[in-house]
Structure prediction request, 303 residues.
Amino acid sequence: MFRIRHAEFLAPGIKRFVIEAPRIARKQEPGQFLILRIYEQGERIPLTIESSDRAGGTVSIVVQAVGKTTHLLNSLQTGDSIADVVGPLGKPSEVAKFGTVVVVGGGVGTAMAYPTAAALKHAGNLVISIIGARSKELVLLESEMRAVSDTLLVTTDDGSHGQKGLVTDRLRELIEQGTPIDLVLAVGPVVMMRAVAELTRGPQIRTVVSLNPIMIDGTGMCGGCRVLVDGKSQFACVDGPEFDAHRVNFDVLVQRNAMYHEAERRSMEEFARGREREEHKEQEVEESAQSEEPCSVLQGGEQ
Ligand code: FAD
Ligand code: FES
Ligand code: MG
Prediction:
């Protein structure tokens, strides 16, 4: 069992967990992920390691609740345990002195990009970060990203924080202004990574994306995470998760990620119904305890 040393919500539906996993903490490098299973019969899900504390023997992850397993995970609290945590998995990010690097993080992708942004800054790059979310309360790790960036640009879809618009609007501006860019790293929803790839393809700016296909074993055995890169099948868990954005077939990624949507929707509905039933039961127990109280006092008085 892997104990959760600390759990806290960073934003609505987005929670950070610090998990005791000394062996993973010792080996983790930026860009790598872990696969966890909350309980023995549960499904395995991959999550990027946001940071690790080698001395303290912990790793942290940032989880956005999107379906059954991530909702269940985000209901866990400090002191709870997770059945299995395997990692670190995947190839670490390529970290070198490239020159000027633009790091683009969309939603929870900001937390996934953070360790690599920090490493790129540490390697002597000029780091321009663009982070975005739907609205102010969903903007993640703003101060952490500011600390590892020479320039931080924040965008929100509704304009409630930073500049109104998309992260790709800011990237387009940088390119149009003639900012010399040696590398772009984009991590976030597929639609965002694809848009970044299209923006940088013309000017031939080297661009890396961290792909998020469905993963099961994380060891290159099951084939679940197959992606098409340069017309060839690659396994994101062992050959990635980072790939050259201009060589990725995003259509195949979108198609494969949607394969289980119906089953995922049913499973989430069932989970939500189960939760409602539990809450209802708890409420009934509470109400009956309250209604019994005066009666027992009365009985006590009669004796
Ligand atoms: P479901 O309702 O089952 O699925 C919702 C969607 O999530 C699916 O349509 C599919 O696109 C995706 N998904 C479902 N099952 C899997 C699976 N086994 N593997 C991958 N994707 C799946 N999310 C975070 O919040 N934080 C992270 O740091 C993070 N890092 C990731 C790193 C990698 C390398 C990958 C591949 C994914 C990462 N994800 C991360 C996405 C996360 O794994 C999914 O959101 C999660 O598995 C959804 O599970 P669910 O049961 O809650 O949702
Ligand atoms: Fe099974 Fe990658 S998750 S091959
Ligand atoms: Mg699921």
Remarks:
- The chain has nine helices and 16 strands.
- The domain at 100-210 is CATH 3.40.50.80 (Rossmann fold).
- The CA atoms of residues 293 and 299 lie 10 Å apart.
- The first strand starts at residue 2 and ends at 11.
